[in-house]
Design brief:
The structure is a homodimer of 220-residue chains. The first copy, chain A, has two domains: 2-149, Alpha-Beta Complex (Nucleoside Triphosphate Pyrophosphohydrolase), CATH 3.90.79; 160-216, Winged helix-like DNA-binding domain superfamily/Winged helix DNA-binding domain (Arc Repressor Mutant, subunit A), CATH 1.10.10. In chain A, strands 1, 2, 3, 4, 5, 6 and 7 form a seven-stranded mixed sheet that branches. Chain A has a two-stranded antiparallel ribbon with strand order 8-9. By secondary structure, chain A is an alpha+beta fold. Chain A has helices at 2-6, 59-71, 135-149, 166-177, 183-193; strands at 15-26, 29-36, 46-47, 50-52, 79-86, 98-106, 120-124, 196-203, 211-216. In chain A, a hairpin with a 2-residue loop joins strand 1 (15-26) and strand 2. Chain A starts with a helix and ends with a strand. Chains A and B meet through helix 1, helix 2 and strand 5 of A and helix 1, helix 2 and strand 5 of B.
């Protein structure tokens, strides 16, 4: 055992990277941010923004730096959560055996602070281009987690403006879940979750009577 | 960007390890398996079984090899799930900056197949010895996850014998949750989960009338 422990500097270390799945809702569609690779392997193919973890950098910092350097996004306002670490496929990167710690987050698309020279594009999760590495698999995993979490928490508040109607919230849930929801059941579930604050004001939605506006209780 | 991509072989790579939090219930207590370190750093201190990820090894294999080599445990029957990847504390290992992918699992203590020369000891999560690295923090995180999951799934079936009474199951839940549960609420919740199969036979429990025996629907 002593031998094994002291071996760390002897054996070849895998590469360790962070990739970020950033979701938004835009044009009534669940979208994920992709960048087009400017280098081999997978030159020209789309990929999640990612980066190898530097020795003196926390993995959370690696995620935010990837968003900034690859996506041109100032991520300081972006909520990121660790999703999963992919390390079972030894061939996922052709350069070096790489383990990927994946973060995911939601952002209201209007709030993204694109910086100059960004290569970031929003793609529908339902209509993805050909992706580099195992990024298709990673995105599918992230979509499933997002769907699993939507009723558990107010995670979705990241996607909504400060004030919204129940119709707008239902729409966002439908887009994430990829299916229509019954209006009455939706309102019942949301009420049970106790995540909304009634703002005691109304918004005109089309020709209908004005709809009540809400915000998330825990937001801000 | 091309420069950054081609830099992977230039910069210093962090170490990447896997640690395993293996839980069991023994003597009416939630216990975790620890090994006593035979090497620096933290010589003589207790730690989770862990191992650096080899280049040609999946992270799941690393976890199972750690259980085998450090714990003397044949893990083929042990259900392991990825818990979290700890990579925010740059100082967690004094030898090399190390990111730890943590797996956790539950095992029925009688089923552990200890191999020769094992150094594995079960410690109560409520009375841990002084631990190496950040392993106390990792165990706390794992206990919280376990408690969060207990009502969601039949995850706990890993801990139970093939046949058990509702009283025995409630006891296991109480040990994991660290608190007493109301018998009626417990039985109602378990019924809602629809995870049990009534075996249509009885077991004598002390001087009371015989109790119905159950198994998990999905087990095996």
């Amino acid at each position: 055992m002593a031998k094994e422990e002291s071996d760390i500097f002897q054996f070849k270390r895998p590469g360790i990277a962070v990739d970020v799945v950033l979701f938004t809702i835009k044009n009534d569609d669940l979208k994920v941010g992709l960048i087009q690779r400017q280098d081999e392997p997978y030159f020209g193919k789309f990929a999640l923004p990612g980066r190898f973890v530097r020795y003196e950098e926390t993995i959370e910092d690696t995620a935010r730096t990837a968003l900034k350097q690859k996506g041109g996004i100032n991520s300081s306002g972006v909520f990121l959560e660790q999703l999963y670490t992919f390390g079972s496929n030894l061939e996922r990167d052709t350069r070096i055996r790489t383990i990927s710690i994946v973060y995911y987050g939601l952002v209201e698309s209007s709030k993204i602070d694109f910086q100059q020279g960004n290569l970031f594009t929003w793609y529908s999760v339902y209509d993805l281009p050909k992706l580099a590495f195992d990024h298709k698999e990673i995105i599918d995993y992230a979509v499933n987690r997002l769907r699993g979490k939507i009723w558990e928490t107010d995670f979705a508040f990241q996607l909504m403006p400060d004030e919204f109607t129940l119709t707008e919230l239902q729409k966002a849930y439908e887009i994430i879940l990829g299916k229509k929801l019954d209006k009455r059941n939706f309102r019942k579930k949301i009420a049970e979750l106790q995540i909304l604050k009634d703002l005691k004001k109304k918004k005109q939605e089309g020709p209908h009577r004005p709809a009540a506006l809400y915000s998330f209780l825990r937001k801000g």
